[in-house]
Specification:
- By secondary structure, the chain is an alpha/beta fold.
- The chain is 43% helix and 14% strand.
- A seven-stranded mixed sheet has the order 1-7-6-2-5-3-4, with helices on both faces.
- Helix 1 (9-35) runs antiparallel to helix 2 (40-57).
- The protein is globular and about 55 Å long.
- The model has no long low-confidence stretch (mean pLDDT 89).
- The chain crosses the membrane at residues 12-36, 42-61.
- Pathway: Lipid metabolism.
Length: 275
């Protein structure tokens, strides 16, 4: 069984080279991103942009199943770290619904907006505007939109309850919602323990966790990218599930149904590989 690679001078030096290479790649591509219109073409370009990051970080992708060809399509998934932002566009194309705070992140927010990310303000006072924005986006794009209904990343030990307010626009609509389950493995496909997941691979705030192990040293987003480069990467396993029947359900029922579907499958796969 694989283990977390021990940190040493050579791993650290290699990660520095990769990290610097990534930023050189970003700087080189900024003019291209600048002139690209915010359209399906910029969304397609995101796939290429993110693929470079995955190669440098040593991230492998394994996909089971196919996403629906129906449009509008909302794909929902559990959320473990920032690498979902790279793996999903590479595996499936498409863009994201993200929390408003990300829009103000230096450089990241601007690039994400150019790549078709829809930022929504989840405060109750802005719920109507957020709903209209999401509905308009889903009705006009030809690619899938991804959403993380937990509203945050976790330590990977479990799936947090889904926020029902994020499904207001699904009620009585023609939007198909397809669940997706994501698991992290070592690059050889062997399981990662909950303790190693929390300490090394997940990206989360300890104060947001309800159960499971905690990280002894929380890292920034870019700090986590560097850390994964130093560890040599990992595998992201994506299991696509069939869209459940949601007709006639209200947003709370939709959230509960989707959460049970994703959580049950996630724990099944996690426990299966751990044995």
């Amino acid at each position: 069984m694989a283990r977390v690679r021990k940190q040493n001078f050579f791993n650290t030096f290699g990660a520095v080279i990769k990290f610097v290479s990534f930023w050189i790649m970003v700087v080189i591509q900024l003019p291209i991103i600048l002139i690209l219109p915010r359209s399906k073409w910029s969304v397609k370009y995101m796939s290429f942009f993110m693929r470079v990051l995955l190669v440098l970080a040593g991230i492998k992708i394994r996909v089971h199943g196919k996403i629906s060809s129906h449009r509008p399509l909302l794909v929902i998934s559990n959320h473990i770290s920032i690498f979902e932002i790279a793996t999903f566009p590479v595996a499936f194309g498409g863009s994201f619904i993200a929390k408003k705070e990300m829009e103000s992140w230096p450089l990241v927010g601007w690039v994400a907006r150019k790549f078709g990310v829809v930022f929504i303000d989840r405060r109750p006072s802005h719920a109507v505007d957020a709903l209209q924005q999401v509905q308009q986006t889903l009705a006009t794009v030809s690619y899938p939109i991804f959403l993380f209904p937990e509203g945050t990343t976790t330590n990977g030990a479990y799936v947090k309850p889904f926020k029902s307010t994020l499904f207001n626009f699904v009620e009585n609509s023609d939007v198909v919602v397809q669940p997706l389950v994501m698991n992290y493995r070592f690059r050889d496909g062997s399981p990662i323990s909950d303790a190693d997941m929390a300490e090394h691979f997940a990206y989360f705030n300890n104060s947001n966790q309800d159960m499971g192990p905690r990280c002894s040293r929380e890292r920034s987003a870019f700090g986590q990218v560097f850390h994964i480069m130093m560890l040599g990467g990992f595998m992201v396993e994506l299991t696509v599930l069939p869209p459940p029947p949601l007709a006639g359900m209200n947003r709370k029922q939709i959230a509960e149904t989707l959460h049970k579907t994703v959580s049950d499958k996630y724990m099944e796969l996690k426990d299966k590989h751990a044995k």
